[in-house]
Amino acid sequence: MPKMVFIERDGARREVDAPLGLSVLEVAHKHGVDIEGACEGSLACSTCHVIVDPAWLPRLAKATEDEEDMLDLAFGLTETSRLGCQIVITDALDGLVVRLPAGTRNMMES
Ligand code: FES
């Protein structure tokens, strides 16, 4: 089974099993990694924002325009930011590394 690595807000690395066909958001939830995903993957929030390790970015499918629009609302946007619910695990992504952003816009507002 593919694995992926989350780099938590405190810098800790967590390597977890990443079943094929699950999104990065679903993998995070399965392992208790703290990514919110308020809209559960329907591209209506930006709380599943993750920062992809630059080495991995070329292997991901390009973001759709809808994803880009939502990302524009994400707090702490970077050049390798993506929405975790839109990255689906494939064999090619075995070993994928993503970092959790410092915060999300929802947290900032609450
Ligand atoms: S969970 Fe809302 S856009 Fe990803």
- Mean pLDDT across the residues is 93
Question: How many strands appear in the DSSP assignment?
Answer: 5
Main sheet summary: 5 strands, mixed
| Bound molecule types | FE2/S2 (inorganic) cluster
Q: Total helix count?
A: 3
N to C succession of SSEs = EEHEHEEH
Strand percentage lies at 15-25%
Structural class: alpha+beta
The stretches of 5 or more residues where confidence is low (pLDDT under 50) are: none
Task: Report the span from N to C terminus.
Answer: 38 Å
Amount of helix: 10-25%
Taken from the alpha-carbon principal axes, the silhouette is globular
User: What is the rounded Rg?
Assistant: 13 Å
Q: Order of strands side by side in the largest beta sheet?
A: 2-1-5-3-4
Describe the structure.
- By secondary structure, the chain is an alpha+beta fold.
- Helix content is 17%, strand content 19%.
- The chain has three helices and five strands.
- The chain has helices at 24-30, 65-71, 105-109, and strands at 3-7, 13-17, 49-52, 81-83, 96-99.
- A five-stranded mixed β-sheet has the order 2-1-5-3-4.
- Strand 1 and strand 2 form a beta hairpin.
- The chain is globular, with a radius of gyration of 13 Å.
- The N and C termini lie far apart (38 Å).
- The relative contact order is 0.28.
- The model has no long low-confidence stretch (mean pLDDT 93).
- The structure holds FE2/S2 (inorganic) cluster.
- FE2/S2 (inorganic) cluster (FES) binds at residues 25, 37-41, 43-45, 47-48, 70, 83, 85.
